[in-house]
Each structure stands twice: as structure tokens, then as C-alpha cells.
């Protein structure tokens, strides 16, 4: 079997709001083979930068469009192809969008391999830890503390046992920050787990103050309170509070995760399959976290392709904690581009059992968003 073509599909809703919701557009990667098997992947990044990193022409041996690197190759050789892509774009791809581009192709290659063998990706990865995995309802904060409380009640009533709120209006002032967490807890009740995603808004001293103020509301974790490069700040924060500190969605590969774990001393390692280097790199990151006694969770606020990939990965590692599942009102894009619509039942997601990722693009819907 040989790779014959790599496609990048930039999908975008007609209306994109100015807010931290990466589910309003998507960069889908489709890899074709001469055996008639097509794999799909996704990249949650700057979509047009990733499209250029994949579709671009040859410049020289360390700056090359990634599609050219894999065409003609055997899709089963995922480890070899990962390193070939990394080496061929090492000038622009060691971090950020160039690195993210590897993820989309790698996910699609694992989809091809598993389809060819007639097994789900998690089985090919050696997994089988779960039949289903607990998920948390992931949402932006409401515009006010009171609206956030109403959202919390809604998600609780939908059967979720864990809920996360994030980003604006967190970070405006101390009173608002505390009120947001207070009302979220009030709406959720005392028994469910409450995760807080601060959205990169504080310095270390402020984050320590907020963690102490939030403690009475018993957060399950405090996520990304600092800018991602402030590893020393993360260490100070983690050492100053009993609340779990979670981070990792901004990291591009295992070298960055090592800094976050060893310098930053975080408690929960968050990995986005569509940014970290795909399955090939995510398995190594999870192993590094396991060696340090750290649980991992996925990050995914885009389409069900990302969620499906995360479920396969979480089912293939011993230190999976919980799965992110977007509970925002279903966007037109997220709900339309795949034939399968994933749903949580009683706060759990079923592990896919179909060959490959177990998710397919809706070919009739795709043209509406191109």
C-alpha cells in the first residue's frame, strides 16, 4: 500500500464569533492510498498556516511541504514517517503550527492502518483499558456569574458528573473571578467535579491568590492560569496550593511537555492529539507522564474527529483521567461535518469499536463549509 495524495480541507462556519471557541472552523486532513483506503485527521491550530505547512512546495531539505514528504510511502510505517516529516520541516516545524501539521497526517495514517486491519485504532495501539470513559462537559463561562450558575445546572441535569468553565470573563477582577467560581459550584451542587480554566490571565502571585480564594468551592483542577512559557511560575503555583494544576494544550511535542512536567510541576497533563504530533507522539507523552506518576486528559474543542482520536488514545494508556467533551450549544460545523454524532450518556463516552477512528466525514455536508 502506498500514499497517493494528501488533502487539506479548511472548513469554516458562515458566522464566526470573536470568542475562544475553536469549533467554529476546522482543518481536516485526508490521506489517500492506492488501496482505496482513506484516512482522516484534524489539526486545531492556525488553520491556514497548517494548510500551508502541508500543501507547500519543496524549498529545501529542511523546509518542505509535508504532503510531498509522505506521498509514495507506506502508511504503515508511522514511526519512520513521523521522523521524516519532522526532519523535512525542522526549520519551521519544531514548534507551533508546523509541528501541529504533523499531527493531522499522523492521525490519518493510524486511521488507514487500523481500517486496513479491520480493528479500531486503540487496539492497534495496544489499548483496551476501558469500555467507556468519564467525560466532563466543557463550556465557556456565561457572560455573568449568574448565567454561569444556570449553565452548571443545565449540565448537571444532563447527567454530567464533571463540568469545566473557561475564559472570559475570568481575569477581569478578583470579585468577578470569585463570583464565577462560586456560582458555578452553586449551580453544579456539592457532589460533581468542577474544573476551572482561567485562560492564561494571571501571573504566578495572582494565580496563587485566586487558588486560595477558590479552595472553598473545591475545584477539581485549575487549568492554564499562566502564560504557557512561565514554567517557573507554574512550579510556584503548584507548590503553593493543594488544587490540581492542569496544563498542556499549548505544547507541541514531548520536549515541551517535559518542561511543563519537570520544571512546571503540573498535576494533570493535557494533550491535544491534533497539536502534539498525533498518536505517535501522544503515546510517548503519556508514557513520560506515567513515569512521573501523573494522570493525563485530552484537550479537544473542535470536531468529533478530534474527540474520536482522543477516545482511542485514552483507551490505550494506563493513566487516562477524564475526557473533554464540548457541551456548548452544538455549532453548525461540529454537528454537520461527520456522519457520526458523539453523545455522552450519564457523564460517559463509549469507546469506538469500529475499524479505524470509527468516524467518517459527511461528504454531502463538507462543501457547505469549504
Give an account of the 3D structure.
The protein is an alpha/beta fold. The protein folds into 2 domains: 3-119, Enolase-like, N-terminal domain (Enolase-like, domain 1), CATH 3.30.390; 124-369, TIM Barrel, CATH 3.20.20. Helix content is 40%, strand content 20%. The strands form 3 sheets. It has an 8-stranded parallel β-barrel, surrounded by 6 helices. The chain has a 3-stranded antiparallel beta sheet with strand order 1-2-3. Strands 4-5 form a two-stranded antiparallel sheet. Helix 10 (231-240) links the parallel strand 9 (219-223) and strand 10 (244-247). Helix 3 packs antiparallel against helix 5 and helix 7 (145-157) runs parallel beside helix 8. The model has no long low-confidence stretch (mean pLDDT 96).
Mean pLDDT: 96
CATH architecture of the largest domain: Alpha-Beta Barrel
Helices and strands, in order, run as EEEHEEHHHHHEHEHEHEHEHEHEHEHEH
Number of discrete helical segments: 15
Tally of DSSP β-strands: 14
CATH homologous superfamily of the largest domain? Enolase-like C-terminal domain
Q: What structural category do the secondary elements indicate?
A: alpha/beta
Query: What does the radius of gyration come to?
Result: 20 Å
Question: What portion of the residues fall into strands of 2 or more residues?
Answer: 15-25%
The span between the termini is 29 Å
How many domains make up the 3D coordinates?
Answer: 2
Main-sheet strand order equals: 6-7-8-9-10-11-12-13
> What is the top-level CATH class of the largest domain?
Alpha Beta
Instruction: Find the CATH topology of the largest domain.
Output: TIM Barrel
Sheet having the most strands? 8 strands, parallel, barrel
Proportion in helices: 40-55%
Low-confidence stretches: none
State the shape. globular
Amino acid at each position: 500500500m502506498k500514499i497517493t495524495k494528501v488533502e487539506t480541507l479548511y472548513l469554516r462556519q458562515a458566522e464566526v464569533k470573536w470568542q475562544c471557541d475553536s469549533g467554529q472552523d476546522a482543518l481536516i486532513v485526508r490521506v489517500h492510498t492506492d488501496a482505496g483506503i482513506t484516512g482522516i485527521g484534524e489539526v486545531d491550530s492556525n488553520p491556514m498556516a497548517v494548510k500551508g505547512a502541508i500543501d507547500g512546495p519543496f524549498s529545501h531539505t529542511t523546509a518542505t511541504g509535508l504532503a510531498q514528504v509522505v506521498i509514495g510511502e507506506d502508511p504503515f510505517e508511522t514511526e519512520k514517517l513521523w521522523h521524516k516529516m519532522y526532519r523535512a520541516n525542522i526549520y519551521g516545524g519544531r514548534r507551533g503550527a508546523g509541528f501541529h501539521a504533523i499531527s493531522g497526517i499522523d492521525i490519518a495514517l493510524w486511521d488507514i492502518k487500523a481500517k486496513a486491519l479491520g480493528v479500531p485504532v486503540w487496539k492497534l495501539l495496544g489499548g483496551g483499558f476501558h469500555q467507556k470513559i468519564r467525560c466532563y462537559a466543557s463550556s465557556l463561562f456565561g457572560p455573568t456569574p449568574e448565567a454561569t450558575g444556570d449553565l452548571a445546572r443545565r449540565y448537571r441535569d444532563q447527567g454530567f458528573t464533571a463540568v469545566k468553565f473557561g475564559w472570559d470573563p475570568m481575569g477581569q477582577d478578583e470579585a468577578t473571578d470569585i463570583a464565577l467560581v462560586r456560582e458555578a459550584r452553586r449551580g453544579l451542587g456539592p457532589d460533581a467535579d468542577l474544573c476551572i480554566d482561567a485562560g492564561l490571565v494571571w501571573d504566578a502571585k495572582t494565580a496563587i491568590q485566586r487558588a486560595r480564594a477558590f479552595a472553598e468551592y473545591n475545584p477539581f483542577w485549575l487549568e492554564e492560569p499562566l502564560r504557557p512559557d512561565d514554567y517557573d511560575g507554574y512550579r510556584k503555583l503548584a507548590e503553593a496550593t493543594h488544587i490540581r494544576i492542569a496544563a498542556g494544550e499549548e505544547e507541541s511535542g514531548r520536549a515541551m511537555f517535559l518542561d511543563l512536567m519537570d520544571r512546571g510541576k503540573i498535576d494533570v497533563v493535557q494533550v491535544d492529539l491534533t497539536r502534539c504530533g498525533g498518536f505517535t507522539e501522544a503515546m510517548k507523552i503519556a508514557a513520560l507522564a506515567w513515569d512521573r506518576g501523573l494522570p493525563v486528559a485530552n484537550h479537544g474543542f473542535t470536531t468529533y474527529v478530534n474527540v474520536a482520536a482522543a477516545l482511542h488514545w485514552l483507551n490505550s494508556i494506563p493513566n487516562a483521567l477524564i475526557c473533554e467533551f464540548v457541551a456548548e450549544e452544538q455549532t453548525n460545523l461540529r454537528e454537520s461535518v461527520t456522519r457520526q454524532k458523539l453523545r455522552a450518556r450519564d457523564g460517559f463516552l463509549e469507546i469506538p469499536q469500529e475499524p479505524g477512528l470509527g468516524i467518517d466525514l459527511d461528504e454531502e455536508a463538507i462543501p457547505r463549509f469549504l
